[in-house]
Amino acid sequence: MALNLRTFRTRAITAVVFVAVMAGGLFLNYWSFFFLFSLVHFGCWIEYQQLVDRIAPGYKKTTVLHRGAMMLGGWCLMLFFTNNELHAGALTLTQLGWWGLLVSLFVLPLVVALPLRSFSISNAGYSIFGLLYISLSFSLLIFLRSHWNEDHYTLSATIPLLAIFTLWVNDTGAYIVGSLIGKTPLSAISPKKTWEGTIGGAVIAVVVMCVIAWLTARLPVIHTAAIAAIACVAGTAGDLLESKLKRMAGVKDSGTLLPGHGGFLDRFDSLLLANTPVWLYAVLVF
Q: How far apart are CA 224 and CA 20, in angstroms?
């Protein structure tokens, strides 16, 4: 596959803007990071439900209340994982999230099951999968951003940014290497992806992140390499999962928000699956 310079330029410009926005949301303060990924959370949910409408036409029968309740329930989980760092008056967002989750335990089953004519086990399954796929993933990212106190602020700022930057470099590197020398298809799910591009992108991402870690000394190089490698492997799996959903839905992109990258799910598909193993490594090691 020849390198399409026009496509690459569009993707690169969009990626740079994306990384700039992500970095701004991360470094400004806890609130900016939370608001940023709250927006992404709802955007991913909307696109996910649109995909499911195409995959399972019966899902279209679910009510607006059902759809909104699933999003809000997932957002309450994000509130809960803010680790008491953010306050809304006398209450912390963690407390608000806790009460929201308690209410959700009683309300969501009713919302999913009523009206009875719209209820099906498959519809409930798609909604529950959305909670795990989208809401839990971003909740763990929020956890990483707010878990460590100011004495370990470097960790709370560095690890989420490391995961985001790794996936950006991996995506860009895989596209370049795959375009130049890619010959062996990675999976029938995504025919344009190649083993050469996947491996090349991962190697480039790990090396780049390790060099940055060595220059900045914000995180030990060995842990940087481990997190970057984990993010690349899980991120590729996330990319393939979203490609499978889009193939089942019969669409090329999940949305049109980002030129050259599609919608929210197209841009954050890798991060959605990378967040969990990165979170697990971080809490076990640090």
A: 21
Interatomic CA distance for residues 213 and 220, integer angstroms: 7
* Cα 43 from Cα 242, distance rounded (Å): 15
For the stretch 105-118, pLDDT in tens is 777 777 666 655 55
With 0.70 as the threshold, say if the pTM is over it: yes
**CB atoms near residue 235 (< 10 Å):** 29
CA-to-CA separations, 18 to 5, 14, 24, 93, in angstroms, rounded: 19, 6, 10, 27
Which residues, other chains included, contact 212 with Cβ-Cβ below 8 Å and sequence gap of 6+? 165, 224
pLDDT, tens digit (0-9, with 9 covering 90-100), for 140-188: 999 998 887 655 557 888 899 899 999 989 998 998 999 899 889 898 8
- State both tokens at 132: 């795990």
CB 79 within 8 A of CB 139: no
* Residue at 282: amino acid letter: A
In one letter, which amino acid is 248? M
Pair 59, 126: CB distance under 8 Å: yes
Distance CA 103, CA 47 (A): 25
Round the CA-based radius of gyration of the chain to a whole number and report it.
Answer: 19
